[in-house]
Specification:
By secondary structure, the chain is mainly α. It contains nine helices and no strands. It has a single domain, classed as Orthogonal Bundle (MetI-like fold). 81% of the residues lie in helices and 0% in strands. The longest helix is centred in the N-terminal third of the chain and has 36 residues. This is ABC transporter permease.
Length: 220
Amino acid sequence: MLSTAVTFDQFLQAMIDTFYMVGFSLLIGSIIGLPLGILLVVTRPGGIIENKVFYNIVNPVINAFRSLPFIILLVAIIPFTRLIVHTSIGTAAAIVPLIIYVSPFIARLVENSILEVDDGIIEAARSMGASPMQTIWHFLLPEALGSLILSLTTATISLLSATAMAGAVGGGGIGDLAISYGYERFDSTIMLITVIVLIILVQLMQSIGNWLAAKVRREG
């Protein structure tokens, strides 16, 4: 028994729901965000496949979504969420805004990571006669891999924070537990446990990301 209101099984289920939301949203968000980030780099003015029309459309759209605080996005797209999953509460409903939130965030992080790559790498690829796709796959991405890992680590931690906020509107997970049992029932024990668990998870995620990035850079 964690407190007078919450059992260990409830807390465990909340943790499972949180990991499910973060994992699934990160997977789909990466599938969308990674290619978008790459395209932002290669289609920008002076990019290897410059396309001003595409860049000038996608760039402001990503900026628009990035400017919205998650809690506002969560509420604003409730009709869309209901259309997709037929409900606006629970774990499944939280995943829809989480994906919309993290996809442009990942795209921007990926863009920044690739832009850190020295221009000499691109020049070397061109001198070898590499095609744009070969330049991206064999030169840009391997060179930016360490930074990309750190970017995805940042996105994962942001998702964890967002799932906690999703609890404010019944999104499920540890955030919902904290709101329903900690805040609304004035249970300071649950609030304290929730904060401690979130801090531990963030530290663990960041440590793993830092280790992987360092390992990739040493091997590179």
